[in-house]
Amino acid sequence: MATLADKSAPVTQSTANRQPPPPRKRVAFGAIQPQGHRIVLYGPGGIGKTTLAASAPGPVAFIDLDESMPVLRSQLPADRDIRIVSGINTWQDLRDALHATGWEDIKTIVIDSVTKAEELAGQYVLENIPLENGKRAQRLEDYGWGKQFGHIYDTFLSMLGDLDQHVRASRHVILIAHDCTTEVPNPAGANWLRYEPRLQSPASGKNSIRLRAREWADHVLFCGYDVDVQNGKGTGSSTRTIYPVELPHCMAKSRVADTAIALTKGDSLVWTNIIK
Q1: What one-character DSSP code corresponds to residue 73?
Q2: How many CB atoms lie within 10 A of CB 249?
Q3: Nearest to 55 by CA among 72, 71, 36, 42
Q4: Sequence-ordered list of residues with C-beta below 8 angstroms from that of 119, at least 6 positions apart, any chain
Q5: CA within 20 to 30 Å of 15's CA: 25, 114, 147, 242, which one?
Q6: Residue 76 backbone phi and psi in degrees, to 5
Q7: What is the pLDDT of residue 7?
Q8: Which fold has domain 35-221?
Q9: Are the CB atoms for 233 and 210 separated by under 8 Å?
């Protein structure tokens, strides 16, 4: 009488030595940790950006690249704890300071201005990144069409990474930028002009520090003078407003605030609407 053949696979040397697959790593869940806010603050010169940043939660550490604090300090409350980070003359100085110890008591770090910091990044590129032929560039344009933008962009991103470490340590970061006007393309009609932070932003959009800073920030705040429009004509005024949301005339965003905020000189309560 015929019997069924044994269907089990024969044991060979290769199967006998085969190791079981490693266990799959299990996803880990953790609590949401508190951290600081990333803020880009920009607007026209003299509107009060530095004064506003100085009223942020303190102690406030100022990396005063524009050297505005020696003039402004006497106009600020004497009891406001503002500490100037000294010895910042180059891009490497800036990064070394952000990596240094001694930040434990600081609540807010201000870079005034990040527009000037970008200039330091460009100088660093000239001094440290050679041309393709190995020679040193004398001008940023020497790198070739558009290549200088990539070098400055990559260099600038390293600073954002440094600042992220401070944000995770629950320090707020405020990057003060000067402003510029940019034409906004409108596929549905006529283009228009709006205010944006004055940071590198090639027309192609590639290697745009301006757009990367907007992505990086929790808040992009535009400080502007109010305009009174009557009979189709605009008239300037001395009142000022912080815009935390995107409008046709300005680039802005906020993860918290959704309405315009009146800007009054010396009013530190402004930050309670933004840093929550």
Answers
A1: G
A2: 16
A3: 72
A4: none
A5: 25
A6: -95, 155
A7: 54
A8: Rossmann fold (3.40.50)
A9: no
